[in-house]
Amino acid sequence: MKKIFTMLFIIMVLTACGTNASNKDYNAETSKEANNAETTKKDTKSETTEHNYQFIGESENWEAVYSYKATEIWGENGKQTTHSSKDNYVLTLKFKGSLEELSSMKNLEYSYETTISSGNKREAYPDPPSEKVFKTSGSSVNGAMVGKDEVIKVNVKWDDNEESFKLHNKAK
Questions:
Q1: Distance of alpha carbon 143 from alpha carbon 52, whole angstroms
Q2: Which of 58, 137, 149, 165 makes the best surface tag, with the fewest CB within 10 Å?
Q3: What CA dihedral angle connects 6, 9, 14 and 17, to 10 degrees?
Q4: Which residues pair with 21 in a beta bridge?
Q5: Quick one: CA dihedral 118, 166, 31, 100, positive or negative?
Q6: What share of the chain is helix, strand, coil (3-state, %, to 5)?
Q7: Is 100 helix (H, G, I), strand (E, B) or coil?
Q8: In terms of Cα–Cα distance, which of 146, 30, 128, 25 is closest to 88?
Q9: 97: closest CA among 72, 64, 63, 134?
Q10: Bridge partners, residue 45, by sequence
């Protein structure tokens, strides 16, 4: 039993997370209250745990929200314990100044790093950006999961400027 659990954990850690990018309304995403909770449901053959966390932080010019949702299902197949999971995240980055202050911006690069994954996004602006909110998102199946005590590192570079800051679970 211990070997099975260890093997499942190793497989989860080695599974890579995918990312994709989108840029939507920051206020619609961040105005929703996240539960920042774990809930567990049991039936006779399986146990499901829902994870819902929101990590927040800011620097002088930027603020960010990393919304994370995951589902774990533990079950039994005969005498063998089974485990599956799926998760998704959205990193929303918002410039705290006015849109006019970004009008000369030609390049934006931002990245995040958790204990289990990292990602970055680069954007070029031949014309001034039309929004001051930027997003990236991703999901995985049967991968390692972000913990509620995670500290997420964020780095933002825009033209000749750079700021780094950390995101913490807002439930704390």
A1: 16
A2: 149
A3: 170
A4: 136
A5: negative
A6: 15, 55, 30
A7: helix
A8: 146
A9: 63
A10: none
Q: Do 99 and 68 form a contact (C-beta atoms < 8 A)?
A: no
pLDDT value for 11: 52
Round to whole Å and give the CA distance between 153 and 41.
32
CA distances from 66 to 7, 41, 157, 168 (A): 29, 25, 18, 9
Query: For residues 8 and 32, what is the distance between their CA atoms, to the nearest angstrom?
Result: 34
Looking at residue 38, its amino acid is E
Contacts of 50 (CB under 8 A, 6+ apart): 37, 38, 39, 40, 41, 69, 70, 71
Block means of pLDDT (10 residues each) for the chain, 172 residues, are: 50 44 39 55 79 97 97 92 95 96 96 94 94 95 94 97 96 70
* Bridge partners, 167 (sequence order): 152
Which amino acid would we find at residue 154?
V
Strand partners, 38: 51
- Please count the other Cβ atoms lying within 10 Å of the Cβ belonging to residue 61: 16
Give the pair of three-digit tokens for residue 79: 């005498």
CA nearest neighbour of 127 among 102, 97, 109, 110: 102
